[in-house]
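The protein record minuted underneath.
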Amino acid sequence: MNAEQHDIGVSQVAAAIAEPARTKILCSLMDGHARTSTELAAIAEVSASTASAHLAKLKELALVRLHVQGRHRYYSLADRRVAQALEALMVIGQNTAPSFQTRTPDRLQFARTCYDHMAGTLAVLLHDRMIEAGWLLEVDEQVYRLSDSGEKLFEGLGIEVRDLAAVRRRFACPCLDWSMRRPHLGGALGAALLQTVIKRKWLTQDLDSRALALTTLGRKEISARFGLKVPVSGDHSEINSKEHHVSVSIY
C-alpha cells in the first residue's frame, strides 16, 4: 500500500467511525459480545434498514465481523485492535467534551470490559499495583514482561504464563484507559486475567453493557492476593489524586 492509498484508508475508517449511529454500534460491541442487527438498530436508535446499511459499511472496512449460525446473523468487532483504537479515541474525545466523563455511570467507570480485558478504576489500580510490586516490568513503552515473582502470582491464579507467551499476540502491554487517562493491562495476559476473575466469580459481567461488578468474594480475594485496598464503586478520589506517565497501545 502506497502513501496515498494509506491516507485514503485512514480517512475512510475515520469517516465510518465518525457517523453517530455507527459510533454507538461499535462502542456497544466493545464488551466482546456479538449482537444481531435488530439489537444494534435499537442501540443506535435507527431503523432496521439503516442499521443494515451501517453494518455493511463497517464490515466492508473490516471494523466488524459477521457470524452466521443457521438463520441467525450476529455482528462483533473485527478484532481487539478496533476496540483499543476506539478506547484511545474516547480519551481524545474527552478533550473536546469535558462533561462526558461526569455523565458516565459510576459502575462503568469502576470496572468494565475493554474488548477481552479489564478496564476502569479497578483495572488501573491493579496495573499500578503490579508495577509497584515489581511483578510487571517495563521492557519498553509498549511491552511488559513478568518478573519471577510476577509469574508465581499469575500461576497461583491458575494462569499458564508460558502458554500465553506462545500465542500470536502481545503478551502484555499498557492500554490507555479512557475514564482514568492512565494505562490498564492489555495483551494476552490482561485477557487471561479477566477470564480468570470472571471464572472465579470475583467479577460478574453485565450482559447488557460493558460493566463489570465486583463481588464480595472478589473484593476479599483481590485485596489478599494483590495487597490492594479496593475502593467502592464511585470512589475515584484515591486514584485520581495520583499522576502517572501514560503510554498508549492500539495493538
Summary: The domain at 3-78 is CATH 1.10.10.10 (Arc Repressor Mutant, subunit A). The chain has a mean pLDDT of 82.
